[in-house]
Amino acid sequence: MLTISDVSKVFGGRTLFEGVTLQVNRGDRVGLVGPNGAGKSTLFALILEKESPDTGTIVFQRGITTGFLPQESAPAGEETVLELATAITPEVVKLQRLLKAWEADHPTELDHHDHHDNLHARFDELGGYQLEAKAKKILAGLGFREKDFNRPAREMSGGWVMRAHLGRLLVQEPDLLMLDEPTNHLDLEALLWFQDYLKQYPGAILMISHDREFLNQLVGSIVEIRQSQLIRYRGNYEDYLTQRAAHEEQLAAAYKNQQREIAHLMEFVDRFRAKNTKAAQAQSKLKQIERMEKIEAPVNDEKKINFSFPQPQRSGLKVITLKGVRHAYGENVVYRSLDFQAERGQRTVLVGPNGAGKSTLLKLLAGVLPVQGGERELGHKAKAGYYSQYRVEMLQAGRSVLEEALETPQRVTEQFVRTVLGCFLFRGDDVFKRVSVLSGGEKSRLALVKLLLDPPNLLLMDEPTTHLDIPSIDALVGALKQFAGTLIFISHDVYFIRALANHVVHVNAGQLTHYAGDYQYYLDKTAATSERAALTAGAKAEAPRPEPAERASVKSKEQKRLEAEQRQALSRARKEQQQLVKSLETEIAGLELKQKELAAELEKPDTYQQPGRAMEINRELIYAQDRLAEITPEWEAAARKLEDLEAARPA
Q1: Are strands 347-351 and 373-378 parallel, antiparallel or unpaired?
Q2: pLDDT tens digits, residue range 235-279?
Q3: Are strands 458-462 and 384-388 parallel, antiparallel or unpaired?
Q4: Which domains are assigned to the chain?
């Protein structure tokens, strides 16, 4: 449905793409990754015809519809949230406007009632009234309340406008859905709903995302932008990391062996080119080198950055306590009698539906919001520090990024500070930018750097991974794992939560439920609770009726027959599954053996005397690696199913 052929693009004097090719078919789920500045957004602009390629073509199959969600700054006007979410075509938008004018008794552009009836008929023909029901369901999933549907979109914050535009795309259901960082403006509950919704999405999806768990759940392939090329890997993000590491290892080995062979041939040339008796042979060796298909030196363009942040002063065991706290926004009471306590070393994530009060709780703990009733008590030597992506008042507009970061009580070198800034996307001359010219995201990242360079022993963070790419998120996770204080945070990034949280607090309707374990423990406990509730409801709804003895006897014979048939079916299924598992294991063993044989052949100098053989071996290695990545999950699923069948065997 989308074909990119031999496309090149130079932007700002830098080659972003050089002869790249990509095919996106119906039903594909593709994740586009690469460091900031690699050209991900430019590739989207080329596909959307907002930019033109220098060479090559980008062609859509005839009749294909596309929908695009930008990372920031989607427009909002006088339309309501519901009208925005249903504005899937210009004609639908026009009809909405005309019908709204009529209903408001301002018949702009309307001459008579027949015209009005025709408008209703056309709107109905386009599915307008069905669109509203679909849009309301989608908007509710994205966190909107029913009372928000008829609010003017311009009254909402930028993040909520982006959610409304995302809702519009889901209502529209284009054949190709293009998403640029779609999770940035979602909380955890909305993200999980969105993730489940996309699993059933009927069209193809091409997305840019720095949320690795989101990519793991959704994509079937990863396209990496690297060294001006598009490199496609099968599988999700974790599969991509494994395959890329293996590919780099193979490439490094092939390059090393080819260079060794070239050096060996050049040694002969240098020794004998001046001798008449050997000159012809030396010339032959030179031609052999020239005929070789040269393997480029592997370049590690993603350096791992390791550093240790300064550690805060040790606090007492009880770090912070809230007792009987009340908080309200006007008539809206969020907490009536809130009790909360955090102990030293806890890493607590706050989860719960949108509007439940998570951010309010974090601000109460930080002292950003004053306690309206009850008590807030910091523990012995406890010092709170609050980070919000919207809180940048700590920055001074006239300073440079580097000057602002160096303004810390801790003893740190400029080199160390520049290393930390680099982890959070301030690289090269970026450190000399004035704070006044930074974007909102850049200011948020700089505020995060300042907080981590002089961390308090109670760190309170609201969505700290927003505006960070994957290497920067890894750097933040590494820093917070070293952090010796207490951490309480809100995040929609499941990878980030899993990496850090050892305690979960579910916030809902002013009530807190504590789970003394990590995020998986929380999921298991809540799933078990939901299952028990469902079973209890089912048992009440279908209580068994006692039967007469004669009927029970007849049923007993019938039951025995059914049980025998079930045992036979189970035995057949078990044998079939055993054969499948054995077949997959045989293929995996063969592929692993093939990999070893090919790797061994690459180590032999003779391989490089055969023109093109090294590249052929590398292609075979990549195929074997791809097939292993594809077949291993199949084997794991088949083995799990066999275990389940074995467990179901009668004792």
Answers
A1: unpaired
A2: 999 999 999 888 888 888 888 888 888 888 888 888 877 777 778
A3: parallel
A4: 2-240 (3.40.50.300), 318-526 (3.40.50.300), 558-647 (1.10.287)
